[in-house]
Here is the input.
Amino acid sequence: MDIDFSPEDRAFQQEVRAWFKAHTPAELKRKTVTGEMLQKDDIVQWQRRLDTQGWLVTGWPKEHGGPGWTPTQRYIFDLERAAASAPVGLSMGVIMLGPVLVAFGTPEQKAQYLPRIRRCEDWWCQGYSEPGAGSDLASLKTTAVADGDDYILNGSKIWTTYAHWATHMFCLVRTSSTGKKQEGISFLLIEMDRAGIEVKPIVSIDGEHHLNQVFLTDVRVPRKNLVGREGQGWDIAKYLLTHERTSIAGVADCKAHLANLYTAAGERRSGGRPLAEDGAMRLKLARAEIELMALEYTNFRVLADTATGKAPGPESSLLKTMGTAVQQTLSELDVEIAAEMAWPWHEGGELGHGRYAHAMPRYCFSRAATIYGGSDEVQKNVLAKMLLAGGAR
Amino acid sequence: MDIDFSPEDRAFQQEVRAWFKAHTPAELKRKTVTGEMLQKDDIVQWQRRLDTQGWLVTGWPKEHGGPGWTPTQRYIFDLERAAASAPVGLSMGVIMLGPVLVAFGTPEQKAQYLPRIRRCEDWWCQGYSEPGAGSDLASLKTTAVADGDDYILNGSKIWTTYAHWATHMFCLVRTSSTGKKQEGISFLLIEMDRAGIEVKPIVSIDGEHHLNQVFLTDVRVPRKNLVGREGQGWDIAKYLLTHERTSIAGVADCKAHLANLYTAAGERRSGGRPLAEDGAMRLKLARAEIELMALEYTNFRVLADTATGKAPGPESSLLKTMGTAVQQTLSELDVEIAAEMAWPWHEGGELGHGRYAHAMPRYCFSRAATIYGGSDEVQKNVLAKMLLAGGAR
Amino acid sequence: MNFDLSEEQTMLRDAAQKFLRAEYGFDARNKIAASEPGMSREHWRRFGEFGWLGVALPEADGGFGGGIVETIQVAEALGAALVAEPYLASTVLGAQAVARAGNPAQRSTWLPGLASGELILSLAHTEVDARHDLAHVQTRATAKGGGWVLSGRKSGVLGAPWADGFVVVARTSGAVNERRGISLFLVGARTPGVQVAGYKVYDGSRAGDLRLDDVVLGEGALLGTEGEGQALLEHLIDLGIVAACADALGAMGALLRKTGEYVSTRKQFDVPIASFQVIQHRLVDMFAAVEATRSLVLMAALHAEHLDAAVRSRTVSAAKAAIGERARFVAQQAVQLHGGVGMTEELDIGHYFRRLTLFCNLFGSSDHHLQRFAALRAAT
Amino acid sequence: MNFDLSEEQTMLRDAAQKFLRAEYGFDARNKIAASEPGMSREHWRRFGEFGWLGVALPEADGGFGGGIVETIQVAEALGAALVAEPYLASTVLGAQAVARAGNPAQRSTWLPGLASGELILSLAHTEVDARHDLAHVQTRATAKGGGWVLSGRKSGVLGAPWADGFVVVARTSGAVNERRGISLFLVGARTPGVQVAGYKVYDGSRAGDLRLDDVVLGEGALLGTEGEGQALLEHLIDLGIVAACADALGAMGALLRKTGEYVSTRKQFDVPIASFQVIQHRLVDMFAAVEATRSLVLMAALHAEHLDAAVRSRTVSAAKAAIGERARFVAQQAVQLHGGVGMTEELDIGHYFRRLTLFCNLFGSSDHHLQRFAALRAAT
Here is the structure.
């Protein structure tokens, strides 16, 4: 048991660090530090840059363009990326759909979609939630009725992030309404330009347009767009939830965020003296830092388990709960440190409240972290089930 | 709306303050400050002293020996009593049974029991909980079967405080097992020297003997010992829970406790300097004090509502939840301030760890506050029911 | 001791609630906040007609002779309705400054207009390096030719774009952190050298930064005694905190009610989510937070004019510290229990959330007031 | 990076758990704690035979050449079994003092006996006015005739009544709060002038206060370099904290398991109370606390020998601060979810509760370590 990187890992770290230092655009850095929302073009350009370097689809297998890194290398990469104030900047296609297609897709689907995701030629959004199916996702009602070689879709998806940027949507639909409700769900790929699709913007409480409602009215989708078997959709969704465990905790970005908070507290004054010297602020920052350390080492432990081949379990629920708590605490601290510098609605950025201009929207949007992807309450239900079944480590 | 006492109230305050200053025995003061458990004799002697002054049964109506004070006077009395480090020192008879008999007792029961309670000739314990009936009190199983002029009791009561000191027990028994389970419960008075009663001590985690299990085997009790009607027991118990609302929050004793904590933090040293000057300790004491202020003013508001004749409601649940949280916080602080001075098992008091000798047992026993008399979880169930019925103020 | 409202106080509270419910619904409010001025002068004048703006001003000045207890009745109602108009900025901070320190000329210039809603007066005290240290004042006022010349910067001035004038806190002597040497000045918004950089705030109101470059003022601009303004400023901020806490109470009460209604109707897993015990207990925790807040607002109001300034400030800080934590909790949980829809701009929940978030750090965070409370222990 | 235990470490952990479950059940443990000595010398020697007591001592001194990672395997098992014997006091604090600073004579006198369980050696560093400030030392050692004379008082000496000797922290020069001038001495328990006022502790162990009146020691009593003991003392306490955290982890894990079992069987309202969602989520919060504790123990252990003392201490303080809060929470909730029976001396729950309560303030409270962590930020 030791905490040190091997000489190879240290060399890798130097390489990654140097690359990010040289290649991260200043504008992206600024947005990452202040928490300003990235635009589609920001992300596409950045992903293409990473892909050119071979560092975009780090979670994909080598045969599909992944770099073939060890878990430690992926950890180092993420750490250096965040420390350089480079955005995660990963689209749903890279994080979510890629691994699904790798695991469940037909050879044709892999060939058709994976390269286009890597090159950012397609932009995928995720159609899971529905107005009546949030925490109770399995009760979703959007129907896909087989009709010859097609499905005909009717229903509505909500909280669909960046649907207004998307060329495609992967979604869960109901192909059967008999039996257990989970078993009637299928995983389907849809081109957004098909007839009968309407995207309605939802402005969130950060004042930004991330989210949408997507209405599907008699939308025809070829049956070859089905991923996996009919009725396998729920298992695919669950696979995804437990699959991408390195990133769920968000350790690297939290560390960068915390470093920014310490900088901000050093810059902001209270009675003319650095706020960082204020007794209560010191304790608050210390508490946040220590919670982040607990998260980091819990993440390490889960990674170590994964490396030794243990089956993915409810750790993802634990990491999500711990991780979102830390993220929300840090965003809260942004607003507290900023005080009146955080007041101006961010359209008014010309006032030069610089570092603090996006503290409020970032904090506001951070509240979604305990709602989407399975609310905090649902994660705890999952963990309770495991605990009471005697599955605690 | 104003916060000032009237001249009459101020005069009353001076009178009470002077009396407690002159009459509180030093030994009782010491025990109150350190949190040492009072013995039966401590309480009996002290209650008799208060009764001589006419200040024992302050919650009883004047005709039964109460002083006829206004709510403000009762508040002042309690404040001064606690500030003088005089113990509450009230037995179950005074706090619980007295008001029940006043409201539900027959003239004979009142004449027989009330004067003896006042003069501390009888010691009453409360027989509510059973091994299988804790939070779900209404599921109690001790049966009282009518047999001529008697009931015959069988069952067991648990967590019976000071049953080993008691001459009498008032208890809830099941007189019927048909219909709603609450409706089969009756309120019965029992002499502890009756045949078939066995008291088994339970030592609690403070190392003291407060609690007992009481076994009842074919115990004969005359039917005239029934209070109220058969089947009215549950209503009587509920009446008691909401009746004694001035004391449930424990504001006066918490204020005295907090003052002792400030004194202790001023005496204890850290690196040679008073612990009270330590940054984190100051914040912790400040937080506790402010929570106590919130409790005090919530208590004031409930008292004001009571004074204007509003029906007793679920405020008692709110006050209990808030009050026990403050009490537990203060007891926790005792232990933290004491540090290694709190280590010695209190039998070893000769070591002279004086003020801190009972910090640990007091803290340990404080944990019961959120368990007995309706656990914190049950109180919140009660409040939720009210809130969802639209009964929030 | 007496904790009951008088009949007049009860009427004031009920009337405010009734009017706002009828005329200041969420849609109407959003139209006002989104309009170019960002407030409704018409509503403001009606608030004046109802007596809300002069409620704590002396009758001789066109007011109704009430005090802080009346003020918090109005403030709570305004918070519950998400009102954007500058009640805190002008009616509490601005008008009370003049009411407490103004000479006859200053009173007659400002108070009747403030009471009627014709005028708006903001307090400009914060500076960017001061944070919540009221004695840290770099803005300087120099005596010149019988009048004064002001120069400096102020940040976070509530209601700034709407203000007809400012009560500007400036230093006439002393070092930058000294309590003595602080003076208050009445400065017309259109005085040469005054520049307002206004902005829309996340709670829908407006505020701004102030730039004062060699602003020449007459002798009559000095409010109160030269160099002795600190005590008044501290009292004003304490009053502002009490009013802000009452506003927060209104918002928290509204969130509790709305969240209770939502969880009773929203179904998941085929049942209303209110049937989940975890949701029920969360609601109870929100309820307890609101009740404690009501108690603490009462406590603070009852001490707002305490003759011992240390007792007053300590009690006010206690309230602000504890209410801040509770406001954050209630706001966060209201969004959480609403789930996705709680995150949308369309629903009022998020607007209450933002209003309470700003409240948490207004006039100092909970930690700031916890430390002030602890420091004032020695003084009381 | 590598987070796996070696095969030997795994065996050590499993063997300790297995032995303690079989031979150190709750009843057996209570008998030991209630006995006149309050510990079992027989068990202690068996711990020695198993290698637990020498696990972190060099092989040359009769140990097994392991380190802190081995130590925490044993400590966690001991905490889970509520073991009363002085593992922390003697095996970690006492033995490590000699192992790190002892000369050949001191090593051969103490280490083989400590490893085998024949000897017990306690660290006496706390003084009543020092609290957790390790540099605050009033006990004085004066050079005299080639040896030393010690006078002073020590409080809260773990395992004191059992100790064959003490590592006493005394000041040979410098002012009372100075880091320089602190020296460590090996003092036999039966040396004239040494008085131990022992007592039973609330966790069932024993401790005591030490009175040193003109205790005359030979030259060979000085452990390490005169006046330079502070760095060693700080390292010892850091090691002690890591071991204590592992002990707490054992206790917390046991409480989580036992509470899970209890709520699954205890029925109220005709159903197991585990069917209440509030109980379920509380259990999850306890689980999260235990998992975080395990992570933090690991983190602290991996930094326990870090070459930069500031990094080491900062990491250890982070763990102690966070684990303290979690230990309190798990202990309190275990009692709460057990209800009445959790409050009884008869059940083991309350014993874990007391052990964890004492842990919270051992070597400094969470707040103490939070402040130390913040202060060390500048140094790292």
Q: What stands out?
A: The beta strands of chain B are 124-127, 143-147, 150-158, 168-174, 185-191, 197-202, 211-222, 226-227, 269-270, 273-274. The longest helix of chain B spans residues 279-307. The interface with chain C takes residues 1-5, 9, 72, 75, 282-283, 285-287, 289-291, 293-294, 296-298, 300-301, 304, 308, 318, 321-322, 377, 380-381, 383-384, 387-388, 390, 392-393 of chain B (CB under 8 Å). Chain B has three domains: 7-90, 124-233, 244-388.
